[in-house]
Amino acid sequence: MASQQPVVRVGVAAIISDAEGKMLVGVRKGSHGSGTLQFPGGHLEVGEDYLECAERETLEETGLKVKAEKALAFTNDIFDAEKKHYITIFVSCRRDDEQKQPVVMEPEKCESWTWRSEAELREFMATEEGKQRLFLPIANLFNDRLFKEHGSLTASI
């Protein structure tokens, strides 16, 4: 039997802010990166537009209807231990109803949803333990040289 060749997959992360500029993050569960903070998102399906993917994944995971507006950044994410490789596209999204709050729709994949500021997420990057609390694509984004010099997730939304 032939072994399956590894492939690079495309992940999409939805950046959704509240009125205070805090972003929606959840605690991953049952998959690579379990226990880390993630944005809503998932795999890009064959033939799917990445903006549509951000909207679909957000609804499936949080119950929130959003309008995906634009790509903000991308990262090259290599999960050595899991032998997985992703390109992650970060997409800014706006909630259709700013009053509606997220619900854990996939309890086997996500422990909880909460709102965190970009400063709080960046603080996690200040220590080695904190880096382990962020899902690899978010850590890679904050470590990206160009993003450090010119980027802000909340300023871009």
Description:
The protein has 157 residues and is α+β, with helices and mostly antiparallel strands. The chain has one domain (8-156): Nucleoside Triphosphate Pyrophosphohydrolase, CATH 3.90.79.10. Helices cover 27% and strands 34% of the residues. The protein is built from 6 helices and 7 strands; from the N terminus they run E-E-E-E-H-E-E-E-H-H-H-H-H. The chain has helices at 50-62, 118-124, 128-131, 136-143, 145-150, 153-156, and strands spanning 8-16, 23-28, 37-38, 41-43, 66-79, 84-95, 110-116. The strands form 2 sheets. Strands 4-1-6-5 form a 4-stranded mixed sheet, with helices on both faces. Strands 3-2-7 form a 3-stranded antiparallel sheet. The mean pLDDT is 89. This is Nudix hydrolase domain-containing protein.
